[in-house]
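Throughout this chapter, every protein is written as a compact record of paired, labelled lines. The reader may check this reading against the record printed directly beneath this paragraph:
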Amino acid sequence: MKDKKKILVIGATGMLGSALTGKLKDMPAELHLASWPVKTDGTFLLDITNPDAVEEAFNRIRPDVVYNCSAYTDVDGAEKNVEQAILVNSTAVSLLAQYCYNYKSLLVHISTDYVFDGKGNTPYMPDDKPSPRTAYGKSKLMGENAILESQCEFLIIRTAWLFGPYGKNFVETIINLASTRDEIKVVNDQIGCPTYTFELANAMIELAGNGSRGIYHFSNQPACSWYDFACEIVAAAGLSCKVNPCKTEDFPRPAQRPAYSVLDISKTVEALKHPVGLWKDSLRDYISKRN
């Protein structure tokens, strides 16, 4: 009888990592959960920017699959902390990829719509040429390129507009604002697709398990604006706050936001052999669980 697969989840206590871990615990696998900088029950500390720590973890676990859910995700903060963003999103990823190559591990890595410039008007394909405009996007693309150069077995999944339990996200922000105000303003000239962490976690496991390799895109459907998303959040949460549309220029931010960041998921749907869920259904599921 074949031994259980050894699975290492990096960033296991984050918003996506927590969702993924919950799914993996139901599977027959030897599960190793890594967190940083705070250790929680059931996890071990792993600083992926420390080569000695990464070597020790790989040598001890010898994982069959490594899920990297860890990243520097502060889009605005990355404009000031460029070196830190590169360290986590590129240098550390290069290190993980090299050890995955050395130990013949599959690396499942999460990337972002920010690797594109956001100037398009049709969904971005996985093989479209990236052209990031922000420090965050550039650091994430550097991480992707490091994986490609490592020659390790890999699965890169680009996603966008994540929401789910165990972390800060747009849904929580809108609910908190709408619970304390009569009116709020939300931009209606940025278009993308919300993504539920639990559905992304399912896709990660399915794609890794069915032999899909290379670059894929995953998000829930269909495309909408942040304003559309906010209106649905307020309605689903049963709040009476009025949501007013506004322009991106009304809310200047350090990092430029993509006007259009819809990802084409047709390659993923074909690989999964089933449709991807609607974000409105996922939103209702999330709000019912948080209540």
